[in-house]
Amino acid sequence: VQLVESGGGSVQTGGSLRLSCAASGRNYVKWSMGWFRQVPGKEREGLATLDWRGITAYADSVKGRFTISRDRLTMYLQMNSLKPEDTGMYYCAAGEPLICDVESSLSAYIYWGQGTQVTVS
Fold first, then answer.
1. What's the rounded Cα separation, in Å, for the pair 113 and 24?
2. Band of the pLDDT at 30, cuts 50, 70, 90?
3. Are 45 and 85 in contact, with CB atoms under 8 Å apart?
4. 119: closest CA among 10, 6, 5?
5. In b/e form, how buried is each residue of 78-108, taking b as 16+ CB within 10 angstroms?
């Protein structure tokens, strides 16, 4: 059971990045998937969710700029119009269908990736 993020890096304000999260070890096709961000000294926050029903949800801070999508076992986060406040460690996570959905808290996600750093300057 493994989630591996990639695609992070450094970008200038207004730029774009596309994060990927590759899932392996079990069939995640019908699982809920989410992207989260954490900065030092703050709690991990949810940014975008694509749940087992196909419903998406976004945090107000990224709505209209970030887009979550998936292609079977790979999940993506397209990030446009990046701002310095988007800087942080980005994590993908997976939660079981029927249990985890767009209304769920972080605790509903049971598998997490190791994170990828995004720096916007």
1. 11
2. confident
3. no
4. 10
5. ebeebeeebbbbbbbbbbeeeebbbebeeee
Question: CA-CA distance, 93 to 50, in Å (whole number)?
Answer: 11
**Which of 17, 29, 18, 21 minimizes the C-alpha distance to 2?**
21
- Label the pairing between strands 116-120 and 88-95: antiparallel
Q: Are strands 56-58 and 32-38 parallel, antiparallel or unpaired?
A: unpaired
Token pair listed for 50: 């694509």
Residue given tokens 């990046």 in the structure block: 82
Average pLDDT over residues 107-116: 94
Cβ atoms 63, 114 nearer than 8 A: no
Q: Cα separation of 41 and 111, whole Å?
A: 22
Average pLDDT across the chain, whole number: 94
- The tokens for 104 are 């769920």
SS3 content of the chain, % helix, strand, coil (to 5): 5, 50, 45
